Amino acid sequence: MPEQLSGAAILIRALEHEGVDVIFGVPGGAILQAYDALYSSSIRHILARHEQGGGHMASGYAHATGRVGVTFATSGPGATNLITPLADAYMDSIPVVAITGQVRTTSIGLDAFQETHTWGISMPVTKHNYLVTNINEIPSTIREAFHVASTGRPGPVLVDITKDALADAMPWHGPVEIDLPGYRPSVQGHPRQVKAAMDEILASERPVLYAGGGILRARASEELRAFAEQQGLPVVTTLMARGAIPDSHPLTLGMSGMHGNYTASTAMQRSDLLIAIGARFDDRVTGNPDLFAPEARIIHIDVDPAEISKIRKADVPIVGDAKAVLRQLLDEGERRLKDGPAPTRTEWMDTLEGWRRDFPLAYVQDPDGPIQQQYVIDELCKHAGDAIVVAGVGQHQMWASQFWKFERPNAWINSGGLGTMGYAVPAAIGAKAGMPDTTVIAIDGDGCFQMTFQELITAAEEGIPVKIAVMNNANLGMVRQWQKLFYDDRYSATELSYTNPNIPMLAEALGCAGFRAETPDEVIPTIEKGLAVNDRPVVMEFVCDPDAMVFPMIVAGGSNDEILMGPEDISCNT
Amino acid sequence: MQHLITVTVENQPGVLARITSMFARRDFNIHSLAVGPTEDPTRSRVTMVVDGPEMEQIVKQLYKLIHVIKVTEHPQGEAIEREIMLVRVHADPKRRSEILNAANIFDATAVDVGASTITFEVVGEPMRLSDFLEFMKTYGIVSLAKSGRIALAKDAKSQNTKQKQTAKGA
Fold first, then answer.
1. In the annotation, is A114 catalytic?
2. How far lies A118's CA from each of A44, A158, A554, B163, in Å?
3. pLDDT tens profile A55-65
4. For residue B170, is it within any domain?
5. B47 in contact with A at a CB cutoff of 8 Å?
6. Which residue among A120, A181, A303 sits closest to B170, beta carbon to beta carbon?
7. Based on the domain organization, do B43 and B92 belong to the same domain?
């Protein structure tokens, strides 16, 4: 007869069977039972200082490893604190499973202590969610949760389990089979559509491959590069897709959109064919969608049919997994090559090359002036180019995307869709927990840093030596930039402080090493010191220019034909 | 423009909340809604009349819900559609027979008669219900209760009908 186990023990067994090696979380009353079972499991638990931190850690882990990130929280405030990381993971299609404790089944609906309607609150920010009130449902629900989170378009799944379901006992029979009749994600693209797409590509004169984060979720970087090379297609990588193709590859144009480079944005705008793969025509990419890429026909490849024609009508829609469809396209392309070589499109390639030459991304670091963030990022990249880079949200994020040279996939982790300030520190910890042998550097702003720095205590306690580069411009820099450009220099509520907190001292207090660079000549020595410390987390503070602004810039809701290249373009535009 | 769709879902707690939450979040509009069991106890059928031009998105977003199994759009005239309505009208004793005669034409059944009102039950095609309601406005409507629309596609073998079904995806 199989042994009797508590619901909590069954939960942990089920997680072990899913291959979970680490859980990020915070315990509490309703999930106590699960923590008790976890105590005798081989799964590592990393105690976050706030459930939001635990959630972002799970997301950073999933980003870096491709495996499902797991986070635990208790009922009520534990669960509500998880809403931001769930929404974040939902927007960026990150596979995360969140397990929350819930009050006893008999207390549900009675406003019990730490009761909240977790299922209802989390519904719009998860791919799917569950309320489990019976121990019998635990094995199948966990299996379903991991299946749903990691297949199709990945995303977060929440499982809310009542205290009595965790406390009851029943025999454990091992993992179970599941049946989800309403969930059958397409993998292969329709062969006729693949042929149609290839017809479009061969006929196009100014094609652009528009690669989104879906390439990385599908682990399809190799196929992307092979296809771009086979057909000679220039590739734009969205913010989420940086590194999907090496930045050093001659076909790579880099990031387009609001702070994209001139060539990438203009190439899309002038193209006659956009081949979107795992991308969703986000407003930060398209600007005003009615004015976006007016002459382009659209091939849209996505595993989520609802993304196709949501913003821009697709001429050739293909529902399927990016990796599978790219392989089909490669095969189809191979067949067509027998009829003749792929078009060379010399004029288009020359045009792109001209733009690249005339409008490169650039910055000036005055040796006697304030530190420029671009310079710090450039030097960080030169010193630790193999690192996984994690960013918060704002100016530093855009500069990191622009100036880091991404040479491999899954080395860039950021909050793209939701734009969650404070993402970097916990996400870096999660990434490092999953990839302990890789250097993980968070490029953070001082505003972001102050939202989640307490998780450095977790990193220090758990021996997770992440490196945090804080670009301290004593301001909420991106908001300030908008105030400068669009609100007559009225800096309402954006000013922070260079000295409060004292970041290196704070870092020391949190159990980390802290360094500060105040002048350009201190940048490289600070980076070298920061990279040399590997026995604890490191915070490198760079005291930066508060007046620097991110360019190029396309005004929100504007046309991608109107790219502001620098401050000099502002005076004539405002 | 109104569209009639039927959504076959797993008979699970909260499925209706998932659908209505998604409609609210995506700013889609529900004109009428009816939920009930089907021939299969593990399935429920949701019949919806939805407003708006974004039908393609509505169908795709419905399919994204894990518990949604099938979405069927019913072009006009290709489904059997029914609603039920209870309507209470002013009925002076001296106009009572006139009203009852009129109701007869619409196949409306008087189900309650008060001192100065009559309550009718009307079951049938949505158009007949709205015609009856329009007619009764001249007497004065006291109160009205109307069900959501339910529908079944016409049998493909007896009618030359075509159901539009979209492929289930992620």
1. yes
2. 25, 9, 39, 38
3. 999 999 999 99
4. no
5. no
6. A303
7. no
